[in-house]
Amino acid sequence: MRNMESLVRKTVLPNGLTVVTERMPFVRSVSLGIWIQAGSRTDRMETMGMAHFIEHMMFKGTEHRSVFEIADSLESLGGSLNAFTSRDMTCYYASVLDEHLEVAVDVLSDILNHSLFAPEEIEREKLVVLEEIRSALDVPEELVQDVFGDTLLSPDPAGKPILGIPETISAFTRDDLTSYIASHYTAPNMLIAATGNVEHDRIVDIVSSQYTFGDAKEKQELQYIESISGKRIDIIRDIQQAHVCSGGPTFGYTDERRVPLWLLNTLLGSGMSSRLFQNIREKHGLTYSIYSFTELLSDRGFITTYAATEVGRLERTIDLIHDEYRKLVESPLDDATLNRVKSQLKGSLVLSLESTSNRMSRLAKQEILLGEYFTMDDTIAQIERVTPDQVQEVAQTIFDDSQMRTVVVTPQKGRKSVRGKKRSNPSGA
User: Fold this and answer.
1) For 89-133, how does the pLDDT look when each residue is reduced to its tens digit (9 = 90+)?
2) Among candidates 179, 136, 132, 167, which has minimal Cα distance to 45?
3) Fewer CB within a 10 Å sphere, N or C end of the chain?
4) Catalytic residue at 393?
5) Which of 55, 121, 125, 324 is catalytic?
6) What CA–CA distance (Å, rounded) separates 86 from 367?
């Protein structure tokens, strides 16, 4: 592992664009990602959903390729082309055989530098995104998690919904899109990451000749949304089960306590051996699906438990979730339990890095969020150094009753819905 990860290299071009690569000569594939440090957090209030909408529009025709030709460009070679928008980043990525690397670079360059943003395509894509919003509202598991994240992070701008809301989506103009791109799709605000059977100098040469992003602009001032009061939000839907997220705020990815947090989350709700699964599903039979997860931005984040259960068992389920939180707060882990969780986390991390796309994502995020690269050996050493007291201290910090929030999507009648009065802009609304 150490020899493989010593093949990480970094170059910052004169225009400020950063290129990082990790060479894996024993594979025949390459994963390439173009990362922009802009997401829903950088949307303005009147243009919520802009970052995500632009991601869609990049695939809707360029000066050189039609919509179909973009889709077919890498699929016809057995590769893939896709993108995603998060709260603080947008990424366009491709995975191909190493022999098709230049095609992937060219396609990504084309959509980022030469997209047309034709007015008729903008209007058509508005309909698509509105359907995506409706789709998210129809999936209670997605809805409860989106609303929880937005609620917990507000009034930070990260609490704005990634998909936007129908009112803002419907009002987008071509000038809005091009203005946003001019402000955020600039070389110093972007990073190119490649992992697989790739030569660093070759990537740098290709990027230098094909990628012409603008100079840095003055960043727009972030706008805050109104804080949502109350420890619990109930949303009414025509569904069969109740869906719940309950948790609290955490520190960000740059905080070294992220490693004890990973271990805490693994023990709490990762897999069938987790405490939540064993107690609430296996012992009490209250739910089919239950797990915990974290979302960490650079400077803040959250941890939550998701569960789905019959309405009559909802309050008992929430109580048991909070019981598991209290156990972590009140009692340090014994060494045997901590060692088992360490082995579980190390194994899952190493296995996930069998994928070049996962390695590319890890490489990019570490460069963007930490400004440095930690090998897997480094990360394993960090995990090994965690003590029971450190895990308990993290639990005591994040499971503070005054900061905890609960969001429920329920079929139960008679409760005030979040849609309308309590919350004007839930994620995907």
Assistant:
1) 999 999 999 999 999 999 999 999 999 999 999 999 999 999 999
2) 167
3) N
4) no
5) 55
6) 17
